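Re: beginner question about structure tokens

> Can someone show what the tokenized structure looks like for a real chain? I only ever see the sequence side.

Sure, here's an example I had lying around. Input first:
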Amino acid sequence: MTKDVVALTKKMPDPLSVIAGLLSGGPDLLVGAEAEGALVRLHDEQGRPLLSVEAPLLVQVRGEAERLLGASEPEVPYWWTEARATTGVKEAEALAGTFVGRIATLVGGTAWPRGVATSIGVVNTEGMTAVPVPAAAQPAVDVLTDKVAVVIQDRPVVAMTSWLADTFRAVAEAELGLQIVTPAGTRLSPTVRGALPGWPSRWVVQDEKCGYYDGLSGAILQWANGLFVTLESPDATAEDPRTPIAETFAQGAADTGERQLAISFRCVHPADDRLVLGGAVESVWREITGEPPAGWGTEEPANLPWSLRQLTDVAFERSPEPTWVVVVGSPERPGLATVRITRTTAGVEEDVTLAFGYGAAEQPPTEAVQKAAEALATRHDLQSMLVQVRRARRDLSVPPHFEGPGVPYAFVLGAEEVRTMPGDRARRTPLREKPRELGPRTRPALYYPFPGDPSDLSGWQDFERLMRHLKGS
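And the corresponding structure tokens:
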């Protein structure tokens, strides 16, 4: 299993401290730079990579090290320097530990995981060799077949780091699946869960009882023909596959009392050089929490303080290519959103998936949902919005066991969609409660309320009836 290590330091690692860290294996190891210098690698005598080191990242958002690593962090701002040892080479793991140990010692800071920097002495690398890297492999890829790229992650939360983001892009271009393998105690960040494509991509969890299972569906897995596939029951048929479910996955279904308020919406703005992006996310955040987001970034950890101007600048620089960003809240009120900004023939689209976490003694402020919807409808060109209440973790991470599905709390149809719908269809619905008008009476958006009780899944039946009605079927 690969070894990810991180140095958290108040000062930026200077060139001399980085050189000292790279000399962890002595002067005989080869050093190479990639990605225009953003990635440095230590190689063995055959040029095979042993250790990959990323450029230090300045983190200006409080709580990211605790959220993603479970680690105590210096006061912001601080520097996050990450390294990754090559799979299956014990000495490479020692190199990684010595590297971050030297960085933390010379610059002043801590190394994660705790106890990884057992020595800052030179690692004996005599006779050490690494496995050749297959063509097109990324630094995070541990196994590459003609069907999937396999990434092994041993950290508390698998996040959308720059390593993993590059891997997502590479496998998509190569038309391969991505399979992420983790120990039983690891969770996914919602950013990774939302980006993981369909089959053959999956989250593979190691388990003492069954070997491996799918962390999202619970299906027991086995390695066959170059990828992890579901284990078929001897009694399976084409009509009834009878996929065995891991006992560990099913046992996690107990209700802890924690809840999530999950909101997804799309805004379509007219293309304009004066357009400011991110305002829709901020409006919802303020209505639900009473404060703006804490930070954002194009990867995790989210490293930049919240700024509409900077987010807009990044999106305009990347246009016409799409822009993906993550937005986070404060540790006191967990919140996380992913925003995808795309230029289309309709204008500039913002697709947002957002969630806030609440403990057993807290109640999601559902009364603020209608105010948030009205802000989107009147000021941010809302197309549609769906709000759910879920039985799920307060910290918003995705565990490798069953969590109950969310239930609809509200659906909102934007004013333009209401206007273009034939007749009075948008207002005359099969729901028990009539929709509420948001915004000006001459051109309103419509707010459709649902019971929103996590113990009652019948809300989905009402939602499906509403969707069929709005589509005219």
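Each token stands for a local structural state, so reading them left to right follows the chain. The first helix runs from residue 15 to 22.
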